[in-house]
Amino acid sequence: MFSACADPKAIEGLSWLSCYLTSGKHLDFYWSFVIVLILLAVTAPAAMIFGFGGATMARSPIAPLRWVGKAYIAMVRGIPDIIFFMFFVIALDQGIEYLKSLAVCPAGSAWPWQGLEFRVCAEAKVPLATSSPLMFQMYGFFLAVFTFAIVFGAFVANVLFGAMQAVPRAQLETAEAYGMSHGQVFRRILIPQMWVYALPGLSNLWMILIKATPLLFLLGVKDIVYYARELGGSKTQVYEYPHGDWRLYYFLGLMVFYLTMTRVSEIFLKRLSNRLSKGQATAAGEAMRRAGA
Amino acid sequence: MKKLLLAATFATLGTTAFAQDVVRLGTEGAYPPYNFVNDKGEVDGFERKMGDELCKRASLNCTWTTNEWDSIIPNLQSGNYDVIIAGMSITPERGEVVDFSQPYIPPASSAYLTLSKDTDLKSGPVAAQTSTIQAAFVAENGMKLVEYATPEETVAAVKNGEAVAVLADKDYLKPIADESGGALVLLDKEEVIGGGVGMAFRKSDAELRGKFDAAIDSMKKDGTLSAMITEFFGPEAKTW
């Protein structure tokens, strides 16, 4: 980055360190923090959408919808994450390429699954072999977000399902007595009141999601833990910046990052919980009312 | 610049013609000096240099990608890249699921890296990377095996006493021993395992394999391959 860094083996001390910390690989490392934050920012709402859909379906009066919702929750919650992340992503990737191959490959192409191999014509590859590395990274990132959203969505669905059941029946009955339709009761009474019941479960999931981001590496996205291990490992003279085993320092840095993330989340979730409890017919809401009065 | 942009646009549009010519090379990126990710964040090492030369000779347009060692064969079969070029030794077991090119590195010695010259290999577990010929060798020869996902971790295991030795390619261990200031040494005992290092292809990709085989041939004949081996692995390394 700096001109002084042209020959790293000739410099030492502070300038060596500043060159070392701005090497291309370190810039990739810093960028991976941004990737993790973006992943969290995109996955959380996506998982909420999956979860909300799952929960709504699971308590739907229409039987087939209910079955789909319940099956989704039971299947995804029951499969270990690591199996899901290894198997599902390869299957998803092959599924996408298979669908694309139906559209773009010449007619009469061979069936893609041949023994252990999966082959589609070059035009059906996603992304195309000619695409830039950036496209490959973005595709990997998309697969990661989608997989995380499905897995965490199932847990969210279960939390929301429980929260919907927890809203006092008397509240819904009163709304019905006012002549509201099924949909109106759902939108105006059930949804606004369920959050306070859902929040403890959702905040747990958010914490777990933060800690689950190193699973990204299984999906081919290079995350902060991958880089910490890779950069911290001892380096021989083949590298520009040889050094010993520095993994401890890198992992200490990660510890600070994760603790900061979870601490900030805790403070924010506590505030949110207070806000949602206001005026609710729960113990927390009642305590607030007494304190205010 | 404009011409370049135009060329790039055509390259993306004319996918039918061009897509065939891009060959994706997959490597591990954690096994210096065979292959590693350098401080600029690019794939580097012996295999990078040789691979680029092979692609030039075979008139192929190659790009590099990294994949962890554990899943390097399944991802080849799934079509995420077309060639494995990752210091992979040719063995009959692997030959059942992938097809190998001819070897580009002759069968090389594997060495034991330990804390002292008189270490007894039976006195404790011996470390090796998962799914390597060395791991199989340790298990088959009456030593206690501990496996690690990356080469780096096998060396760390010896340093902190979890294992009494690492068995790995000598070309990987030698620089580590040389630079440790005497803390780590290589035993005199060496093992010759495997049928040399080759590139791995999908079984259905005979045409691509043929192109690379021809390119390896031409590099062997004019001596460039031997020169490269000496450049990266030192004068003692076996050449063609």
Please tally the β strands of chain A and state the result: 2
The major sheet of chain A is characterized as: 2 strands, antiparallel
Number of strands of chain B: 13
Give, in order, the helices and strands of chain A: HHHHEEHHHHHH
Count of individual domains of chain A: 1
Most extensive chain contact?
Answer: A-B, 41 and 44 residues
Q: What structural category characterises the helix and strand content of chain A?
A: mainly alpha
- Describe the strand arrangement of the main beta sheet of chain B, using strand numbers: 5-1-6-13-7
Termini Cα gap of chain B: 43 Å
CATH class annotation of the largest domain in chain B? Alpha Beta
Distance between the termini of chain A: 62 Å
Trace the largest sheet of chain A across and list its strands.
1-2
Low-confidence stretches of chain B: 1-19
Structural class of chain B: alpha/beta
How would you describe the shape of chain B? Answer: globular
Tally of DSSP helical segments of chain A: 10
Mean pLDDT of chain A: 88
Write structural notes for this entry:
Chain A is built from 10 helices and 2 strands; from the N terminus they run H-H-H-H-E-E-H-H-H-H-H-H. Chain A is mainly alpha-helical and 293 residues long. Chain A has a single domain, classed as Orthogonal Bundle (MetI-like fold). A two-stranded antiparallel ribbon of chain A has the order 1-2. In chain A, helix 2 runs parallel beside helix 5 (133-166), helix 7 (182-212) runs antiparallel to helix 9 and helix 8 packs antiparallel against helix 9. The longest helix of chain A is centred in the first third of the chain and has 35 residues, at 24-58. The radius of gyration of chain A is 25 Å and the shape is flat. Chain A starts with 12 loop residues before the first helix and ends with a helix. The relative contact order of chain A is 0.11. With 240 residues, chain B is an alpha/beta fold. Chain B has 2 domains: 2-106 and 196-233, D-Maltodextrin-Binding Protein, domain 2, CATH 3.40.190.10; 109-192, D-Maltodextrin-Binding Protein, domain 2 (3-Layer(aba) Sandwich). Helices cover 38% and strands 22% of the residues of chain B. Chain B has helices spanning 2-13, 15-19, 46-57, 72-77, 92-95, 133-140, 151-159, 170-179, 206-221, 224-233, and strands at residues 22-27, 30-31, 35-37, 43-44, 61-66, 83-84, 99-100, 109-114, 126-129, 145-148, 165-169, 185-192, 200-201. In chain B, strand 2 and strand 3 form a beta hairpin. Chain B is globular, with a radius of gyration of 19 Å. Classes of the chains: A mainly alpha (293), B alpha/beta (240). Chain A: Keywords: Membrane, Transmembrane, Transmembrane helix, Transport. Chain A: One of its GO terms (cellular component) is plasma membrane. Chain A: Residues 33-260 form the ABC transmembrane type-1 domain. Chain A: The chain crosses the membrane at residues 29-50, 71-92, 138-161, 194-219, 248-269. Chain A: This is ABC transporter permease subunit.
